Amino acid sequence: MTEAAIAIIGGTGVGRFPLDEGPESVTVTTPWGDALAGVGRLRGRRVVFLARHGAGHRLPPHRIPYRANIAALRMLNVRAVLATTAVGSLRTDLVPGDFVLLNDFIDFTRYDRGGTFFDEPGQVVHTDFSDPYSPQVRNTALAAAETLGIALRPRGTYLCADGPRFESPAEVRLFAAWGADVVGMTGIPEATLAREAGLHYAGVSLVTNPGVGLSEVPVAHSAVEAVMAAMGPRLQSLLTETAAQLDVDALPPIGPGVPLPGLSEARWG
């Protein structure tokens, strides 16, 4: 069997990730479309890198092939996922440059993003989300941050909106009142599909801007990219150290524990 792997899913500002060996580009064909990934090694570990928005950041949030991406990772024998997201802050004490390790989410998406693998008649599968992000991977990320001396907020609730527009001031007030800490456009259904696929998934968010209404400066994508570029080396170090410390072979089973529809047992195993 292929060696188990850790995946890094790069969001806005993380279209590439340097590995010690590789990456070798591979196109994985799944029942939900093709996905392009890079496979290599990082600190002796087998690592798969996937650019969420595709090459050249060409896919808007609601057009990302989430099912194909996650199915491809599963077919490449990925066991754990470290995912980055650029987010807006919903709180005045979260400022651009802050790292947040997510522990909960609110799904405010309304487009059909392909939010489940189990959507055909006879596929009645209900997946538990009482612990939305992998405790094992989250604990490893916290340990890695401590090793590196990187400030990492240990908890945060992520609200996923559809985009591609930014939120209105009233929406920012509403989301904050619901208890969300940050808002983004891509974390769901990625996290929920990963759980369905049996992958341990953790999300690291980088605050790139205050939510609309928390600052007099309008939100601009160029400002988001500027913060990502400035904080990119620290984010890269955090992901690298987490991957180095994470023992994927020791991770317990997670998710519903049934094969993905459309994938053979050989691919699943």
Describe it.
The protein has 269 residues and is α/β, with parallel strands linked by helices. It has helices at 66-75, 135-148, 169-177, 190-196, 221-245, 265-268, and strands at residues 5-10, 21-30, 33-42, 45-51, 78-89, 99-101, 104-107, 152-153, 157-160, 182-184, 200-210. The chain has a single domain (5-121, 131-251), classed as Nucleoside phosphorylase domain (Rossmann fold, 3-Layer(aba) Sandwich). Helix content is 26%, strand content 27%. Strands 1, 2, 3, 4, 5, 6, 7, 8, 9, 10 and 11 form an 11-stranded mixed sheet that branches. Strand 3 and strand 4 (45-51) form a beta hairpin. Helix 2 crosses helix 5 (221-245).
Quick overview of this protein structure:
With 269 residues, the chain is of the alpha/beta class.
